[in-house]
Amino acid sequence: MYSLLIPTPIGPLYAKAGAQGLLSVELLVLGEGFPERPNALLNDLARRVEAYFTGKGETFLEVPLDYGGLEARRIALYEEVRRIPLGQTRSYAQMGRLCGLTPRAAGAGMRACPFFLVVPAQRVIHADGRLGGFAGREGVKEWLLRWEGALLSP
What we know:
The protein contains 5 helices and 5 strands. A hairpin with a 6-residue loop joins strand 1 (2-6) and strand 2 (13-18).
């Protein structure tokens, strides 16, 4: 397994990859020490993360993800969320309808998503415009959406 710590304005990301693709990306709470063993995929991810945070756009859709062990509906949900354009949002209900899930199941799937930023969970909000949860980091969700230029309700 390969791993890399990627600095960002919102805190460090810790990414892991295997032979089949990206295994996980998580936003660290503190600058905890994690072993690093980068590979070409993780170095490419670091370049893409830097481009995202310097306003050069987002190109995470091309990053291969290793969905090993995940059920088909969750994979479908993550792939649909990956297609939400930068600066736009969709509701949990919309995502659920696209994937044959209830809005609650779509929310649970997004809460369990192991691919922070690469699967842009921040772009999935409540139908009434409320941001909804973000694994206890609602401020990060709002920050990311504002960074992307999304129109948010006051």
